[in-house]
Amino acid sequence: MKAVSIREHGGPEVLEWTEAEDPTPAAGEVVVDVAASALNRADVMQRMGLYPLRPDWSPYPGLEVSGRVAAVGEGVTGWGVGDEVCALLTGGGYAQKVAVPAGQLLTIPEGVGLVEAAGLPEVTATVWSNLVMTAGLKAGETLLVHGGLGGVGSMAIQVAKALGARVVTTVGGPEKVARARELGADVAIDHRAEDFTEHGPYDVILDVVGGDYLERNVRSLAADGRLVVIGLQNGPEGRLDLAEIVFKRASVHGTTLRTRSKEDKAEIVAQVQENVWPMIEGGTVKPLVDRTVPMADAAEGHRLMEAGGHLGKILLVNDESA
For the whole model, what pTM was predicted? Predict the structure, then answer.
């Protein structure tokens, strides 16, 4: 098979479409013929050397795929060769084949194409695990989503609205304000021109930015508010006012999906299949795909992501399997 390797840490040009060893399924795993993968910010960080890998993780980037089951390992039930699936990965999605624990497989939602489904596992698992399983977002509460037109942000807006929450989001530029409202945001803020703290307080904040947003996030929380930090685009350091935390009875959570155990991921995936897939199949939540790029040209996909003009997911298509 072929896969996208990282020749050395650096810019998009270090990504190379190279020969790789075919995976074989261990007990409890399946091998998927990959139709498509999707770009995530963690892939860019991995390429740049800012996301250290564990020894048991694949050296190839890619945290989600769609495709067809090609082989089934010992002990796997409920899945068979030829089944169309999408999957949450720890890595290795930028490839023609990938081995994945069976507990991290999902069906393709009705009405969603095989390639399009590649952009669903990571964002839906991230959004559901953080908004519902960690923050306990409820109907009638107010959610602030930073980066509302990225992959995670656009999904978070839709899922939160489906749950009955009021949603406020930040976006970069006036042209994106209208798009965020079309997705369902009750309030969309151009962060370049307006301070999001003026629209609080917020019961839950989902933050992909980190850094100097920490102080303003906490200041914007309502009593018993919950801040969930899942990204560090502005860096890993910020000022935390403990008095704000104490007197508001607030909580700050830092989470990441990739480092969770297989058991935890299987539980998240099961909840996504049960709760989010009906939202997608009913049309309440829609995948947002910006464009597709050939997997062999993953470097171009990374350039597009870093340029920041995309709305939703950028997909990498393996033409042979798709």
Answer: 0.93
Q: Which of 96-105, 226-235, 294-303 has the lowest mean pLDDT?
A: 226-235
Q: 114, exposed or middle or buried, with CB in 10 Å at 0-12, 13-18, 19+? A: middle
Buried/exposed code over 234-270 (b: 16+ C-beta within 10 A; e: otherwise): eeeebeeeeebbeebebebeeeebbebeeeebbebbe
- Asked whether residue 296 is assigned to any structural domain, the reply reads yes
Contact by Cβ (8 Å): 232, 211: yes
Partners of 292 in the beta sheet?
Answer: 315
Range of the domain at 83: 2-120+288-317
Domain shared by 113 and 138, yes or no: no
Say whether both 115 and 139 belong to one domain: no
Would you say residue 228 lies in a domain? yes
Q: Tell whether 210 is covered by a domain.
A: yes
The CA-CA-CA angle for residues 154, 159, 163, to 5°, reads: 150
Quote the pLDDT of residue 311. 80
Domain check: are 237 and 156 in the same one?
yes
Do both 92 and 178 map to the same domain? no
- Say how many domains are in the chain: 2
Q: And the tokens for 20?
A: 């790789």
- For residue range 53-65, what is the model confidence (pLDDT) as tens digits? 888 899 999 999 9
User: 63 and 256 in contact (C-beta within 8 Å)?
Assistant: no
Task: Report if residue 259 sits inside a domain.
Answer: no
Task: Convert the pLDDT of each residue in 283-307 to its tens digit.
Answer: 999 998 999 999 999 999 999 999 8
The burial class, CB within 10 Å (0-12 / 13-18 / 19+), for 300 is middle
Q: How confident is the model at residue 321 (pLDDT cuts 50, 70, 90)?
A: low
